[in-house]
Amino acid sequence: MAQTSKESVEKKFKDVFERSPGAFPEGTSLEKKVNYIAKGTEALKAVKSKELENKMKNVAELSQKFESQKGRADEKVRQDFERIAELDQQYKGKGIFTSEKVAEPKSDKKLQDTPRKTTTQLKTLNIIHKKRLLKLLCKQHQSTIHKPLIPQ
Question: pLDDT tens, 63-74?
């Protein structure tokens, strides 16, 4: 930055204040004008600095909140996988994790006619509900992976 002489600064101030003479009262010295502008500049810098500080605090808080949400989501995913593993072990060989169709439940009249079939069909219904639960858990897990935690 080039050095400016006192005369150069004085000329610039005169040029500015000739265009807007009402900025300072008549007869105000150049030194008072410079001091007034310097104080205003310092106040403006302080405001800008405070705004920047507030923005940095906000970013830090959002980052901390994001990490917390990420930790909870990771824990939920871990629990979901554990639950899926438990259900997989519990229903191993029963066709729950394959794409084969499970028989649809019979009508209520047929269920009342044969108690033995009713037990088998209830077990089938139980398996169907557990299969649906697993699908929901998988979908929920996938949605937590791809969903942004902080709105943008």
Answer: 999 999 999 999
